[in-house]
Each structure stands twice: as C-alpha cells, then as structure tokens.
Write a structure and sequence with these properties.
Heat Shock Protein 90; alpha+beta; 16% strand
Length: 558
C-alpha cells in the first residue's frame, strides 16, 4: 500500500482552505464592485437627465427639433450612454438612438419621479419632462437614457483584474514556502523517527531507544520521549508476564482438580433434573387435558348462550303475535256484529218487499242502518288491516337478514304500532322527535329488534312505581352517521349496575321473568349487525339514557 505524506496532506488542506477563502472574498469583492459601479452609473445617468432636462423640455415646448436632435446626439456620443429615447406628451417618439425596437414605455408616471427601466442588455432611467409656464409645471414628454451591462462588466474587470493576478501570484509563492517549511519541520524529522522505530530489537529493548530528531522541545520530541517511556514499560510488562505465566501454570493445576469435583456434582444435578423434567411432563399432560375440558365447556356455554339469545328473540316475536292477535279480535268482532245486524236489516227489507208493506220511512231507516253498518265495517276492517300489515312488516324483518332502504322515522312508528297491545294497558307514552327524512340502508330486522328491546326494557324495568312514564326517541344524522338518543324518565340504574348493563344474563329481576339478555342482545345488534356504538348514562331516580350511532349504509354481509 502506497504511503501518503502527512505534510502533503496538510499542505493540500491548508492551500485548499486558503484558495477557497481567497476566492470567496474575491467573489464578494466583485459583487460589491458590481453593485457599486451600477449604482454610480445610475447616479451619472440621473445627473445627465437633470443637466439636460430644462433645455430639452424647452426645446420640446418650442417644437425645436434641431435642438432636440442635438441634445440626443450629444448624449449618445458619451461613453456611458448606449441608447436614448425622447417622446412628447402623447408618447410619440421625437428622438431615438440605439437598439430599442419593440420597447414600450409605461404610462401614468408622476412628474419629477425617476423610474428604473431595463430592456434586453440595457438598463437606465425614465423621467418625465415638464416645462414651467407662469410657475405651473406642464408635462411635455419623457426621456429615457440607457446604459449597458457590458459597460459595468468592463469597469468591474478593470477594478478587480490586478487584485486577482496578485492573489494568484501570492498563492504560488505561499505554496512553495509552506512546502519547504513542512519538509524541514515535519517530513524530515518523521522520516528519522520511522527509521529508528523500524530498527527496534524486541529482545534488547533497552538498547533500542530513539534519539530526538531536533533539539527543540516540540511535539516530535514529546513523541520520541513517549515512545522511549513505552519501551521502558514494555520491559516491565515482560518481567511481569513471566511471573504471571508461572502463576497461571499453578492455577491450571488447581483448576483441573476443581473440574473433576465439578463434573461429579454436575452428574448428581443432571439426575435430579431428569426426574424433575419427568414430573413436569406429567403435569403438562394433565394441564392439556384440563385445557381441553375447559375448551369443551366454553363451546357448550357459547352454544347455550346462542340458543338463549334465539329463544329471547322468539319469545319477543311470540309476545308480539299474542298482542296483535288480541288487538285484531276487537275490530274483527265489531265487524262481525255489524255484518250480522246488516244481514238482519236486509232480511226485514226483503219481507217488507214480499208483503208489499215497504214504506218510505222503512226504506230510509234501512238506508241509515246500512250506511252506519258499512261505515263501522270499513273503520274496523282498516284498523285490522293496519295492525296486520304492521305485524307482517315487523315479523318478517325480525326473521330476515335482507338489507333494504328504511325510513327511520316511519319504521319506528310501525314498531310502536306493533307494540300497542302492550302499551294500551298502561298510561305510558312514546315521543318521537328529530329528522323525519332519514333513510338508511340496513337490516330492518336489526332495527325492529333494537327499538323493541329499548321500549320493552323500559316497560319492564323503569316504570315499577310510575303510572305515566315518557319514552323519548330523538333522531338525527350527519354525512355518514345516524344518531339515536333514547331516554326514559323511569327509576334509573345505579352506577354499579350500569357497569354490568350490557353483560349477558345480568338482570335486576332474577326470578321475576328477567333473562338478562335484553340489553346484551341490544349491544350485539348495534355493534355487530349495525357496525355502530352504544353507551348508557343513568343515575338512580333520573331515568336511563342510551346514545346510539351507526353508519347510514351497511355492508351487505353478515
């Protein structure tokens, strides 16, 4: 591997840093010179405009084209000026000199205000010309005097050329001087040290000490002194190593004896460990058997829970059937009575017609009785039809998993209608508030079961000591979610019971017909069937409030 000289590396680093710094300063000087020269040229152009503005304004006012041309040509002959444009008050060119094809002047410039302009490689100042008539300045035109960036570059080069040449010469001289100094002060002494280190005899360290390369107390002398100290310590370490080697031999003998004793102890421990492993294996087998029994028990428990949930749904549907059947009997019985009476009236009319005893009064009474019977029949048959249709919709939804569009407000009222048999025996009332136009895409059966459980739970648990209770639904929505708030003014739930409200088989009416699955089914419907969330808030005596939210549109999957 080739040797890299430290002096060369230092020299290259120092010179590189110096060159970068020098050129950075030079660039800053060039930039500063450029800005200064450009500012001075702007000032010179502005001074030119001030110098000729009075005479030029008078020449334009007097329409003296020869004087205007003389002034313009005089400006163009100056080294500073590269182009001149003079216009009258209508922006019509009076005098133009230089490459200004396509140049357009700006409008609405205030008087006595110079404006910097630039066009291609030219830059300059634009100023309005005014002529004072009776002390009142009058706008007579404008003048634009251009100079060029090449003029700036030439002046900058003149000012920085000699400093740059001097910088390059100083870099060359500095490189030569630094290289000579590095060789005398660093490279040559290092070579002497390297040669001395290469001649060291490891068997005779005391005779291998180095001689300092110079008489000055510099870093190289310190390095030489440190190296000689290291040789002294190496001699001491060599003596200590011999002593340590002898002690190590004695320690190895003792270690062999200890190993023999340790092997005997390990054999005993291994036998005990084998016995312990056998016992652990037997315990593992027993634990696996217990785990299988627990899994079987858990499976049976889940099956039982599923059957209970299904039974609870069927019981709810059965209760709905019983209530609807009883409710339908009333309008049907009235209809049967009305039909029987109408049949009797028709029979009496038939006898009167056969006996030719029919009178106008008799006929009028028959018509009144027939109309009343038909009206009674129509009213009660419509009521029975409405009850049957509501029951049909709710019952079909509770046994179907189909997803369809449902108007939430109308569907809730259908559920309330189907529960009228349970409500009519009480003085409780159900209030529905909120948005009436919420249409959701979901399993209608899940909605029916959810609303039914909310109402029935309040009827069973909330109004034990209350004869006139209120159950309030509030419906609302946003872009993606529907929000349902349900609240009753019943007896409420304690905080301890509220924590267990949604747990399966938890009920406060154990032994009174409560299964403890109503709120658990409600929780599963909202979280699983409707992909939503449900929470409850309550205090004893303040009623129970449910907050429910779920997406407006459900994915068509179980």
């Amino acid at each position: 591997m080739a040797t890299v000289s430290i002096s060369n590396r230092l020299l290259s680093r120092v010179l590189s840093s110096y060159i970068i710094l020098s050129f950075s300063v030079t660039l800053l000087q060039v930039a500063f010179t450029y800005v200064s020269v450009k500012s001075e040229m702007y000032k010179e152009v502005q001074q030119l405009e001030k110098t000729i503005s009075v005479s030029l304004s008078q020449a334009i006012w007097e329409l003296n084209e020869e004087q205007i041309a003389a002034i313009g040509n005089g400006l163009v002959e100056m080294t500073l000026v590269k182009a001149v444009l003079i216009q009258d008050e209508m922006s019509k060119e009076i005098f133009i000199s230089g490459m200004l094809e396509g140049f357009e002047t700006s409008e609405n410039q205030s008087l006595n205000t110079a404006k910097k302009v630039q066009y291609n490689e030219l830059f300059g100042l634009e100023n309005q010309l005014s002529f004072s008539l009776s002390g009142t300045p009058t706008h007579v035109g404008r003048i634009i005097i251009f100079s060029s960036y090449s003029t700036i570059y030439n002046k900058v080069m003149v000012q920085v050329l000699f400093p740059i040449i001097g910088l390059l010469i100083s870099i060359l001289l500095l490189s030569f001087l630094i290289k000579r100094l590095f060789h005398r002060l660093l490279t040559s002494p290092l070579e002497q040290l390297s040669y001395g280190i290469a001649q060291i005899d490891l068997e005779n360290l005391s005779q291998s000490r180095l001689i300092p390369p110079s008489e000055q107390q510099d870093e190289l002398n310190m390095l030489t002194h440190s190296f000689n100290l290291m040789l002294v310590k190496l001699e001491e370490y060599k003596l200590n190593l011999e002593k340590t080697k002898l002690a190590l031999v004695n320690a190895n003998k003792k270690l062999d004896l200890q190993n023999m004793s340790l092997e005997q102890e390990v054999s005993k421990k291994t036998a005990n460990l084998s016995l312990a492993i056998s016992e652990l294996a037997q315990q593992k087998t027993e634990l696996e058997e217990s785990e299988r029994e627990l899994i079987d028990s858990l499976t049976r428990l889940k099956q039982t829970q599923t059957q209970l949930v299904h039974s609870e749904k069927m019981a709810s549907l059965g209760s709905l059937v019983a209530g609807i059947s009883h409710e339908i009997n009333t309008p049907v019985g009235i209809g049967v009575t009305a039909v029987s009476y109408l049949t009797e009236c028709v029979g009496n009319l038939d006898i009167a017609i056969k006996n030719k005893t029919l009178t106008k009064t008799h006929m009028g009474k028959f018509i009144d009785d027939a109309n009343n019977s038909c009206s009674l029949l129509t009213t009660n048959l419509n009521k029975a039809s409405q009850l049957i249709q509501s029951f049909k919709d709710i019952a079909v939804d509770q046994t179907s998993e189909a997803i369809r569009d449902v108007n939430l407000f109308d569907y809730l009222n259908e559920v309330i209608t189907s529960l009228q048999p349970k409500l009519k025996r009480t003085q409780h009332r159900i209030i529905v508030e909120g948005d009436k136009d919420i249409v959701i895409h979901c399993r209608a059966g899940s909605l029916s079961q959810m609303f039914t459980n909310l109402i029935l739970n309040s009827l069973v648990h909330a109004f034990d000591d209350i004869t006139k209770g209120d159950m309030t639904f509030h419906l609302s929505r946003d872009e993606t979610l529907v929000y349902i708030t349900y609240q009753d003014n019943g007896s409420g739930v304690s905080q301890d019971n509220l924590k267990q409200l949604f747990e399966p088989f938890f009920t406060t009416k154990r032994g009174q017909g409560g299964s403890g699955l109503g709120t658990h089914i409600l929780y599963n419907i909202v979280n699983q069937s409707l992909n939503g969330k449900i929470s409850a808030q309550s205090e004893l005596g303040d009623g129970l409030k449910y907050s429910i939210q779920f997406p407006l549109s459900q994915i068509n999957s179980k």
